[in-house]
Amino acid sequence: MSLLDKVFQLIQSCREGLYWDFKECAYSINGDFVHDVLCMANSLSGCDKYIIMGVSDPKSGCEIKGLPKERKTQADYIDLLRNLQFADARPEIELRTFIFGEKEIDVLIVYECSLKPFYLTKQYEKVLPYHIYTRTLDSNTPKDKSADFGVVERMWRQRFNLDLPPKEKFEKILEDIPNWHIDVGNEENAYYEPSPEYQIVFSRPLKSRPARITIGKN
Fold first, then answer.
1. Omega prior to 178 cis, within 30 of 0
2. Backbone angles phi, psi at 99, to 5 degrees
3. Where is the Schlafen AlbA-2 domain (predicted)?
4. How crowded is residue 180: how many other Cβ atoms within 10 Å of its Cβ?
5. Strand partners, 140
């Protein structure tokens, strides 16, 4: 399914959910944008999230209102996030524009990432530092609150792949190349620093051998 089809399907649902939200207007208050992105980025939905701007909320029937020509661009949003002080990783976003009839809407994609929880270390407007915001069903954590402890624990478990079966966990950590290290004094082994029990043993490829044919007697 294309992104356009998915967005149209979400609009037709006439409701908001764990990974999508409607905004009738583009963001004019930067703090609201930052708060919404943090809530979406920390959502436990397991998929990409969508903030659909130019569509009224469900109480008004999710009507496509469209957006004015003068509004924030993708570069504006990315620069805003780049200048904030996050604990370590920051959410990845992309802005896409679609035309319905003669009306333009913007879809802000907040990409799914296992590096949850995302949070600030310095207050930005009314978005508080060291507060972990998330999305529950169709509702965001208020700016003066923090997500429940159990939800935050699930985020950390997801970050460290603690809920995955060993085989799937190993497939994940193989992609984390910077954390693999050659064992000092033993160049035949490499270990994964966050979980040293995961190791790779190096060996030389076996030389090809000619096929052996055995002829038996009847």
1. no
2. -115, 125
3. 16-142
4. 15
5. 135
User: pLDDT digit string (tens) for 81-135?
Assistant: 999 999 989 999 999 999 998 999 999 999 999 899 999 999 999 999 999 999 9
Q: H helices of 83-148, where?
A: none
Q: What's the first-to-final CA gap in the chain, in angstroms?
A: 64
Give the CA distances from residue 95 to residues 78, 98, 127, 132, 134, in Å, rounded to whole numbers and listed in that order: 9, 10, 22, 24, 21
Distance CA 179, CA 127 (A): 32
Residue span(s) of the chain under CATH 3.30.950 come to 3-159
Residue 207, classed as helix, strand or coil, is coil
CB 120 within 8 A of CB 132: no
Cα(98)–Cα(110) distance, integer angstroms? 17
Q: What is the spatial distance between Cα 41 and Cα 91, in angstroms, rounded to a whole number?
A: 6
User: Alpha-carbon distance 147 to 169, whole Å?
Assistant: 26
Please state, rounded to an integer, the average pLDDT across all residues of the chain: 90
Binning pLDDT at 50, 70 and 90, where does residue 173 land? confident
Q: Which CATH number fits domain 3-159: 1.10.10, 3.30.950, 3.30.200, 3.40.50?
A: 3.30.950
Instruction: With H, G, I as helix, E, B as strand and everything else as coil, classify residue 27.
Output: coil
pLDDT of residue 189: 84
